[in-house]
Structure formats: C-alpha cells, structure tokens
Amino acid sequence: MAAIRHGDIAPGGAAANEALLLGALPVAVAVLDGENRFRYANHAAEQFFGLSFAQLSQLRLADLVPPDNPVFPLLSQVRRGEVTVADHDLTLESPRISKRGIAVQGTPLVEEPGAVLLIMQDFSAARALDRQLSFRGAARSVAGMAAVLAHEVKNPLSGIRGAAQLLENSVGAADRELAVLIRDEADRIRALVDRMEVFGEKPLRREAVNIHRVLEHVRRLAQAGFAAEIRFHEVYDPSLPPVSGNRDQLLQVILNLVKNAAEAITEGEVPHGEITLTTAFQHGFRLTVPGAAQSLHLPLVVSVRDNGPGIADDIRAHLFDPFVTSRINGSGLGLALVAKIVGDHGGLIEVESRPGRTEFRLHLPMLNEKGDSA
Length: 374
Known about the structure:
Layout: H1 14-24, E1 28-32, E2 38-41, H2 43-49, H3 53-56, H4 71-81, E3 85-93, E4 98-108, E5 116-122, H5 124-152, H6 154-168, H7 173-197, E6 207-209, H8 211-224, E7 231-235, E8 243-245, H9 247-267, E9 274-281, E10 286-287, E11 296-297, E12 300-306, H10 313-316, H11 334-344, E13 348-354, E14 357-364
Parallel strand pairs: 7-9
Antiparallel strand pairs: 1-2, 1-5, 3-4, 4-5, 6-8, 9-12, 10-11, 12-14, 13-14
C-alpha cells in the first residue's frame, strides 16, 4: 500500500482510492510517520480521538497517550521487525482520551520507512453489552425475589405494623418508643419490597420521546433541589431524532444518574461541582447480540458526566448489580434499575470513570418513520 497523506490525494489516483476505502472502514485507521506524527486518519479515527484530522496532523501520538503506554513498544516492534504486531485489551488514558478494552494492530508501510498503519478497535461497547445481559439476568432474579417477598412478607408485615400502632396508643411513654420503632422498621421493610417490585417484567409502552425535554425537566428538578449548588452544562445535538421509548421510565433513568452525580460531587466535597448533559448521533453504531435475529441499531447517545472523585475500582465492575453500593445508606438498587430500564428499551449503558471525571453513556434506539424502533 502506498503511503497515504491527506494532502497528497489526487482525484482518481491510487492513493485516492485507498483513502476512500480506508475512510469507509468502521474501525479507526491512522498512519504515523517515524516520529509518530499523524499523516492520515480516517473518519472513525477522528471519532476515536475526538479530534479532526486538521487537529491530529499537528500532534504526535505522545500528545494524546502517555509515553509509557504499551502502544509505543508495539510501534517500535513493528518498525524494528518490519512485521505486523497486534495487542489486545489495551487502555489509552490521558486528560485528552479515555479508552479501555482496545485492540491495536500495527503494520509497516514498506514504501515509507518508519511509517506505520495503525488500526484501533474499541470493544468496550460489546463487553458492556455482555455485562448488561448479565445485569438483566440479575434483575430478573430480583424480580422473582420481590414476588416472593410481596406475597410472603407484606401480609404479616401489615399485621406487625397494625399491632405496633395499637401498642403505641395503649402503653406508657417508655414502651411507646419501642412501638414506634417497630412501626418505622416495618415501614422501611415495606418500602424496600416496593422498590424491588419495580423490577417486575411489564410490557413497555413506547412512544416518540424528545430526550432533550426529558433532560431539561431533570435539570430543572435537580437545580431546584438536590443539585442547587452545582453548575450544569448542556451540549445537545439539536438535530437528534426522537427516542423510541417510555418517557416516564427514561426520565427516571436520567434523574437517577444526575442524582448520583450530584451526590458524588457533594460527598467528595468537590469545590466547583459540574454536571454535563450531552446528546449526540452516532452513525453506524450496531451491536450483535448472541441468538438475536438482527443487530441492535443504537445511534442515539445520551451522557451524564460529573467532575466528582470517580468510582472505586472494586465497585466499578459490579456497578449495575443489585445491592452493590458504596454509600452507607444506599440500597444498591438504583443503578440496577437503570440498567434494567435501558435494557428493556433495547439499549445499552456503559460507564467510564477516573478521579475528576465519571461519565455514564446511554445508547438508545431512535424512532423510524413507521413509529417503530429503528
């Protein structure tokens, strides 16, 4: 393959044809010269790094990725042996970029000594989907447990609460405190059972949902209450088509994520707390689910990002499992419910977190012209 440069492409030439082919690939492809400067980047690579080629052409790879990253020994091995080298499950993380579970392949360009064709594939979404399928299985287990609890616990619990109320009105002051304690604890258990019952399998009523109105409603609720001291940023794509889903459930998802972000900022005592709400359209984002008749088309991306202290590593892998929480008074059901609702919508949720930046991203289906999920 001839060395490809954005500025050297002549209409109808071989380089132009190669550039068209590389540009159409859904994976990130870049050409680095001997000093790891960007000589070419296709559209997927621009999305991967979050920069246009005009910006990338002014940078070295070391400007985006720390110099001790494993990708640099890989590039050295490619140049030294003039062979293709691949590595998997790499992390590319810096203030400019945060990517995990990346597969990287480097191939030498014979026509230009030192130049390397670098291919990068992000498998984090596929892994997030695998985890989400596990989360949905766990949610179904919670639903089964809730059904048992509702039947076996609620009835005797009502009897206990009623007896406590009778005692409260017929005993002395010292014993009245114990009766109140029994009543309050019965109410707490009933509330927990009620929360678990929302995991039950119910038909989802879909409609065209303007996700921006949902986000705006959540922002107003937050700023009027639990996030009054936190600054909000809104970065919306105004051309975003409607989401195919249930408005009330999507509102519950966004509200839960924003509330968690606000609590993380408050508990972390972040001096200038910020929450950023973002929407975007992601072309060509499809995922294949094992056993499914067709792949999932999830072009709509909604994200909630905060500048809190981040999520602990030991919690992150099990973040959406029921009863997993890092808060003293938390039940661990909020994010499990979020994952279930997103899954019921045929969507995907993923999270990236490090100190100073935590981002939850929702990938959702859009409404097609027939009114169905596209």
